[in-house]
Specification:
Layout: H1 2-26, H2 33-59, H3 67-88, H4 105-115, H5 118-143, H6 145-151, H7 154-171, H8 174-177, E1 179-181, E2 188-191, E3 194-197, E4 199-201, H9 207-242, H10 248-286, H11 295-306, H12 311-318, H13 320-363, H14 370-388
Antiparallel strand pairs: 1-4, 2-3
C-alpha cells in the first residue's frame, strides 16, 4: 500500500514539474541585446516599409479597382501591425516581465492577447491566408477570366478578407486556451526552483491529445495553405510555359498578367520559406521532441518575423508599376518639403520687411512718400516670391 502511494506521489510530482517546465519554456524573457536590437530593427522596417506601400496604394485610386491591389493592401496592413505588436510584446524587445496586477481586467486582456504572443503569431497566419487568397485570385484571373470579374468584385473581395481575418483568429484560438492568468498573489509565483510569470502557458491536455491538436493545428495554420500555394502556382507556371507563343494582340495583357503572377509567386515562396522552420519546430514541441526558447527556436522566430518587412521590397522590385508610383510618391514628398522651405523663407522675409517698413516710416519718411515706398516694397516682394516658386 505504501509503495503504491509513493508511486502515485512521484507521478504527481513529475506531472507538476513538467507543467512548471512547460510554463517557463513558453515565455522566457531573453535579455540578449543583439536579439532585441534585431527584433527592434525588424519592427521599425515593417512599420515604415509597409506604411509607405499603403500610402502608395491609397494615393492612387485607379489601383483600388483591381482585386489583387486590395489583397496586397490588406497584406501590407497586416505586416505593419505585426511590426507594431513586435514593439508592444514584452518578450521580444523589452525583454522584461510586464508588471501585471492581479485584479486588473486590462492586465488579463494584455496577458491573453499581447504578452503571450497571440497577436503576433495570429497576424502571421493572417498574412499566410491572405497570400493564399492572392494565389486563388491569380488562378481565377488566368484559368477563369470570365468568372473572375464577378467572383472578385470589390465588395466580394472585402468579404473574403474579413473571412481571412476571422479564420486566422479562430485557427490560433488554442493559443489563448493554453494561456493561464494567475489572478491572486504577487506578480511572480515560485514553483520550487522555477519562477513563472503571472501570465503563463499551461497545457490543458495530455501528451496524446496535445500531439493530435498539434498535428491538426499545423495542418490548418500552415500545411493546407502551403499546399494550395504549391498546387496553384505549379499550374500557373505550366500554363505560362505552354502559352509562351502568343499573338501580338494578346501580348500586352499576357505580360501584365505574368508580372502580377510572378510577384504573387515570389511573395508566397518567401513567406512559406520563412515560416516553415518555426511551424515545424512548434509541431515537434507539441510532440514533446524539442523544447521552446532554445537557440534554434529563437532563430525560427526571428526568421518568420523578418518576413513582415520583406514584402514591400518584393512588391517594388518585381512590379514596374509600383516602382513608378513609388517615384511619384517620393517626388511629391520632396515637393511638399520644398514648399515648406519656401513658405518659411517667405515668412521670414515678410517679417523682416514689415519691421524695416515700420522703422523707416517712423524715422525717415514723410507722410506723403509712405504710399510710394509701400508700393515699391510690395512689387519687390511679389518678384521675390515668383523667383522662389
Amino acid at each position: 500500500m505504501n509503495e503504491k502511494y509513493k508511486r502515485s506521489i512521484e507521478r504527481l510530482n513529475t506531472t507538476k514539474r513538467q507543467t512548471c517546465k512547460t510554463e517557463v519554456m513558453h515565455m522566457v524573457y531573453n535579455r540578449v541585446l543583439s536579439q532585441r536590437l534585431f527584433f527592434a530593427a525588424v519592427a521599425i522596417l515593417s512599420i515604415t516599409g509597409n506604411l509607405f506601400f499603403i500610402a502608395l496604394i491609397v494615393r492612387n485610386r485607379k489601383l483600388m479597382k483591381n482585386a489583387y491591389h486590395w489583397i496586397l493592401l490588406s497584406l501590407a496592413i497586416t505586416d505593419m501591425m505585426t511590426g507594431i505588436f513586435l514593439l508592444l510584446t514584452p518578450v521580444y524587445i523589452i525583454g522584461e516581465q510586464p508588471a501585471l496586477t492581479g485584479e486588473n481586467i486590462g492586465s488579463a486582456i494584455f496577458c491573453y492577447i499581447v504578452a503571450n504572443q497571440f497577436l503576433v503569431f495570429t497576424l502571421g497566419i493572417v498574412s499566410l491566408y491572405t497570400v493564399t487568397l492572392l494565389a486563388v485570385e491569380r488562378w481565377f484571373a488566368v484559368f477563369r477570366p470570365l468568372r473572375y470579374r464577378t467572383t472578385f468584385r470589390s465588395h466580394k473581395v472585402h468579404k473574403y478578407l474579413i473571412t481571412v481575418w476571422v479564420s486566422s483568429f479562430v485557427a490560433n484560438s488554442t493559443h489563448i486556451i493554453e494561456t493561464k492568468y494567475v489572478l491572486h498573489g504577487d506578480n511572480t509565483t515560485n514553483h520550487g526552483d522555477n519562477t513563472t510569470n503571472r501570465c503563463v502557458f499551461h497545457g490543458v491536455a495530455g501528451n496524446e491529445a496535445r500531439a493530435a491538436i498539434g498535428v491538426l493545428e499545423i495542418c490548418i495554420k500552415f500545411l493546407i495553405p502551403a499546399g494550395i500555394l504549391l498546387v496553384t502556382f505549379t499550374r500557373l507556371y505550366r500554363y505560362r510555359k505552354d502559352s509562351a507563343v502568343l499573338t501580338t494582340a494578346r501580348r500586352s495583357s499576357y505580360v501584365a498578367l505574368t508580372r502580377v503572377t510572378h510577384m504573387a509567386a515570389i511573395t508566397s515562396f518567401v513567406m512559406v520559406l520563412c515560416w516553415f522552420p518555426n511551424q515545424l519546430f512548434y509541431l515537434l514541441f507539441k510532440l514533446n521532441v524539442v523544447q521552446l526558447n532554445t537557440a534554434w527556436h529563437r532563430a525560427t522566430v526571428i526568421l518568420c518575423m523578418f518576413n513582415s518587412c520583406l514584402n514591400p521590397c518584393i512588391f517594388l522590385l518585381s512590379n514596374k508599376i509600383y516602382r513608378e508610383k513609388a517615384k511619384e510618391l517620393l517626388q511629391s514628398c520632396r515637393g511638399l518639403l520644398k514648399n515648406d522651405e519656401i513658405s518659411l523663407a517667405e515668412s521670414n522675409h515678410v517679417v523682416q520687411s514689415v519691421v524695416c517698413v515700420k522703422f523707416i516710416k517712423g524715422n525717415f519718411l514723410e507722410e506723403d512718400k509712405v504710399e510710394i515706398f509701400e508700393h515699391a516694397l510690395n512689387t519687390s516682394l511679389a518678384m521675390h516670391s515668383h523667383e522662389l516658386s
